[in-house]
Design brief:
Layout (H helix, E strand, L loop, with lengths): L6 E2 L10 E2 L6 H9 L4 H7 L5 H14 L9
Antiparallel strand pairs: 1-2
Amino acid sequence: MSEIHRITVDPEQCGGRPTLRNLRIRVKDVLDLLAAGASHAEILQDYPALEEGDVLAALEYAARQSDHTVLHVA
C-alpha cells in the first residue's frame, strides 16, 4: 500500500521542500539517516512524532523521484 500521501509540500515551511505530514521533518533528513545506516527503529526513536509509514513514504518518494524517462538521441 502506498504511503506517498504522507508527503507534504508547503512553500511556507522548510523552504518548500517535501516534509512528512507537515511536521517540519524533511524527507531528505529521513533519507540521509537511512543512507547513513540508521534503522527504522532508530529514526522513530529520534523523531517520536514520526510513524513507520512516514519512513516508508520517504523511501517511496525517493524511488519515484529516481524513475525518470530516458531520452535517446539519434
